[in-house]
Amino acid sequence: MESVDLIIRNGTVVTMNADREVFPSGSVVVGGSRILAVGDASTEAAYRAERVLDARGGLVLPGFVNAHTHVSMAAFRGLADDVEDRLRRFIFPLEKELVDRELVHAGALHGSIEMARSGVTTLADMYYFEDEVARAVKQVGLRAVLGETVIDFPAPDAASPAAALEYAETFIRTFEGDPLITPALAPHAPHTLEADWLRAVECTSARRGVPVLIHLAETKEEVERIRARTGLSPVAYLDQVGLLDERLSAAHCIFVDPEDIALLRSRDVGVAHNMVANIKSAKGVAPVPRMLEEGLRVGLGTDGPMSGNTLDIIGQMGYVAKVHKLILGDATALPASEVVALATIGGARALHMEDRIGSLEAGKLADIVVIGVDSPAMAPIYDVYSALVYAASARDVRAAIVHGRVIVDEGRLLTVDEAEVRNGIEALAQRVRSLVGRLETTGEAAPDATD
Amino acid sequence: MESVDLIIRNGTVVTMNADREVFPSGSVVVGGSRILAVGDASTEAAYRAERVLDARGGLVLPGFVNAHTHVSMAAFRGLADDVEDRLRRFIFPLEKELVDRELVHAGALHGSIEMARSGVTTLADMYYFEDEVARAVKQVGLRAVLGETVIDFPAPDAASPAAALEYAETFIRTFEGDPLITPALAPHAPHTLEADWLRAVECTSARRGVPVLIHLAETKEEVERIRARTGLSPVAYLDQVGLLDERLSAAHCIFVDPEDIALLRSRDVGVAHNMVANIKSAKGVAPVPRMLEEGLRVGLGTDGPMSGNTLDIIGQMGYVAKVHKLILGDATALPASEVVALATIGGARALHMEDRIGSLEAGKLADIVVIGVDSPAMAPIYDVYSALVYAASARDVRAAIVHGRVIVDEGRLLTVDEAEVRNGIEALAQRVRSLVGRLETTGEAAPDATD
């Protein structure tokens, strides 16, 4: 009998491995930060565990990957929804006046708690003061790829792209080798950063071996501006600049044609599909079924909570399955099993991390969630993927394990004091409310700087 | 001090009355089956209550109205999702072999529990053995309009339309005057019942003063068949037959043009919009923003749980808000406050019940829900409607009151034994699984009878 740290038993183990094996009453064995074994109930016979987590008939899955967000914007969640010219009237002025180290940390803590409790075990973030995001993410116990923003605009943490790159260098140095945090660079978008700065980002990324996160082909305006300036699509333009490679993950990719898709594929770029945020803002829908046919690396993202409101990936899955069916006029498009794959191993692939996370397999990092099936909506279950995509709620998550550590158990977060974080967010919200009151009165808007 | 039965206090009271009043720390006073008073915290000073329900900072709303479902199909939830020719390969054979009194009752109990726990207080149902649905709905304690199906096809409870009408007469007699149940007639659809039978339904409806529920303009095939036969749209055809009036509620209405909308408006017909089910089946999206401009009575429905999987209305709201924005290319279309109206007073109007339910107002029936805001996704709240539409989950419902009776408290159902109902559903699911195994092996399909 081998001594191990943790056995999860008595659940339906949905591995998301290449064969999509499902063990109706399975076990997952964890030693340290790694999965040692996955299989049916007999799997655990060879092990004696320090701790046993009883899944009580629930679904055991690899942790969900949120492949694109701005977690600190949880402080602004639900603000000025449904209003005209929201970006310039509210988002930019709010960010200009309020985004500082404290807000970034408090927002990231609050948003990370939401993610942990809803089964997200890895996130990719783009924002300012990413060292504060890293601190918050580590406190909660999540895994993250964190991209420090570089933009042609005075940002809360850097007055210029040069200053942002300097900030990023320090950030990278501080967190390199961290078991949970992968520091990264986040050039904002092809049209909000000059080509020379995009090249400088690529150069730093290559030299330090860190990933790059970017917004790409997100709006019609972006496409028009880049085309007017260069005659190229945003994707082709980024390729010309030299940014398309196996270190890049691009969010959105709504306005891409077959040549763009082929280019993204040949350069091994990852794509984060943000369905909920993209349709709420009426931007459009990325051609994900086509991307999957072409073998692209595609995962799911929530975008920031001012865009998509929630940070969980379970809530994205139903939209992804259904809106693509509507658009294609085909009720069999993007079946539930493929959507669960996008939410797990797909997200891992979009971040080029599929060798370490995204499925329950011996040797991978132990990022695991347990989803309860007590809710009446979760019965009967004829197909686990259907239940997950068409009926589950983020609130059904009962346990989350990241890097072998149980951070959520029985629906409760074990790592930080939730009530204290909530109080902090409510206090921040009061400051936001008074600023918004002023913005609504004066009608002042930020200059047209970054879009 | 007047003695009353129940006071709900310490919540944000979202009345959905004509002025859309919201009381940030409000109270609702209930006597018997009615709301006696609604207002700020001072409202309750004049009353002494038998029971006080502390909303603990949650949101207090009128109960949600599920304006179209087939609740008993909860037994088949999630079965054969994403497969080709699902209706004939699975749904019809399943209904033919398995739908009997026992299944209808067990499915309706299970689905009613889901609705109660997710804040639906009134549903409109179309199925077979509606007396069994009525029994289940009353056991759980919900309010319902229940339409006994009339169809040109041998049904589980009636061999012919004549037999179905006879069944319906008995059903109506049994439940007329019931405080919770409104018996109704449900001619299946314009193309699945001959004109003479549609007229017979209308005649019975007029004579007994009962509502009529129908599927209308749901598929392209329906539109084509009716047009080929009559030269009319399904809406215009139903008008010619004499069915369009203030007793009719029509589900779907996807394929309607401006003349159809004007006709539905002038005849005061209610419409149930089933966004999730309609996009999952790739049928299309009803032009609801246009319907609202024209002043139509529109509510939200889930459709049956084989179509939409879940029976809660909270989960519909986000789809309704976002998919219409996508289709119109307008991020300000269907703002959250309008969507909450569709889910509450809109559903009441769609069922012609707005004089009794759909808003929190003195004199209306006491159908009330409390939605908790403890989930991290529910903070901060800058706008209650945004929080409800873009962040809330059906699982956040903490209390439900129907007709003055508390049926859910602290998230627990007080009326029937949930575990026992769940066991019944699991046993049924076993029977379903073995039949489905047989269908998959033989590939036998039902004849093209009703579509």
* Number of helical regions of chain A: 14
What's the number of extended β-strand segments of chain A?
17
- Which CATH class of the largest domain in chain A? Alpha Beta
Our estimate of the beta-strand percent of chain A is 15-25%
Structural class of chain A: alpha/beta
Question: Can you summarize the main beta sheet of chain A?
Answer: 9 strands, mixed
Global geometry of chain A? globular
CATH superfamily of the largest domain in chain A: Metal-dependent hydrolases
Radius of gyration of chain A: 21 Å
Helix content of chain A: 25-40%
CATH topology-level fold name of the largest domain in chain A: TIM Barrel
Mean of all residue-level pLDDT scores of chain A: 96
Distance between the termini of chain A: 61 Å
Biggest interface pair, counts: A-B, 68 and 68 residues
| Count of spatially separate domains of chain A | 2
Quaternary structure of the protein: homodimer
Low-confidence stretches of chain A: 446-451
Task: Describe this entry's structure for a reader.
Two copies of one chain form a homodimer. Chain A is an alpha/beta fold and 451 residues long. In chain A, strand 7, helix 3 and strand 8 form a beta-alpha-beta unit. Chain A starts with a strand and ends in a 9-residue tail after the last helix. Chain A has helices at residues 86-98, 101-117, 130-140, 161-175, 195-208, 220-230, 234-241, 258-266, 275-280, 288-293, 314-328, 336-350, 384-390, 418-442, and strands spanning 2-14, 22-31, 34-40, 47-54, 59-62, 64-69, 120-127, 143-150, 181-187, 212-216, 248-252, 270-273, 297-300, 368-371, 397-402, 405-409, 412-413. Residues 446-451 of chain A have low confidence and may be disordered. The first copy, chain A, has two domains: 2-62 and 359-413, Roll (Urease, subunit C, domain 1); 68-350, Alpha-Beta Barrel (TIM Barrel). Chains A and B meet through helix 2, helix 9, helix 11, helix 13 and helix 14 of A and helix 2, helix 9, helix 11, helix 13 and helix 14 of B.
